[in-house]
């Protein structure tokens, strides 16, 4: 006679799983198959993109030097300048977005009353739904004009720094403005992930810190941040991926060319790989199309390496907490 209570009896047959001593139900096997198929699909898609860029863009690495004249003498000089602009715009965006996003996430998860926190979180999430073109139009037509006095002030008062040496751009459409636009686009991603990992801090850890006499900030510093470190790294890397790959917003804000400069407020602005592709993809010369595909391959590999390094750092952080 069965001793299993009626409310605990299995409603479907249990099928032995692939692991010794582990038994899975039919629903578990279906879910496992769907998850496996999803993972394989993502990997196959990434592999297909890589193969396409490699096959179509490989001739671009040895393209004739006349294609890059007069700004560059070879492909590597050309893509190096574009990669510099890509990294510079992304760094500007992260310097602005990361502290602001962490502060917003912390305000939502630990400081704001529930009603206000829900409203703020909803508004921040809505920013992620705004198309890139809208951000680009706003940056080029509104922010650039409004930011002109600030850029002139930076030129006059901080011109001794290479970043603000000037002369300030007459249009206001500079790499600094593009970085601010990218920062606003990164904030919803970083904030959403950060507030989730902050909220998952064990309540007992927070209460123990407060019971020992810690202030609210000390509790956050010694309980919340260590627990959420790997998630914070993942949030920043996802924001970096958005900044590195953004196309239309940067292309609409900047009138750029492949150049290397640290001056953030002048009219001479470095271009990013993505914005350069968006600006020149209609070229009729097939050689230019090939070069653009080659630069896309460089951006693909660079983004992959950045995310791989971020995953390694996050993994070390998780192992250090055990």
In summary, what is this structure?
This protein has 322 residues and is an all-alpha fold. It has helices at residues 26-57, 75-111, 114-127, 132-146, 148-157, 175-199, 203-211, 216-245, 248-253, 273-280, 286-321, and strands at 14-16, 23-25. The protein has one domain: MetI-like fold, CATH 1.10.3720.10.
Could you please describe the fold and organization of this structure?
The protein has 322 residues and is mostly helical. It has one domain (63-321): MetI-like (MetI-like fold, Orthogonal Bundle). 69% of the residues lie in helices and 2% in strands. The protein has helices spanning 26-57, 75-111, 114-127, 132-146, 148-157, 175-199, 203-211, 216-245, 248-253, 273-280, 286-321, and strands spanning 14-16, 23-25. The chain has a two-stranded antiparallel sheet with strand order 1-2. Helix 2 packs antiparallel against helix 8, helix 4 packs across helix 6 (175-199) and helix 10 (273-280) packs antiparallel against helix 11 (286-321). The longest helix is centred in the N-terminal third of the chain and has 37 residues, at 75-111. The radius of gyration is 25 Å and the shape is globular. Mean pLDDT is 83; it is low at 7-12.
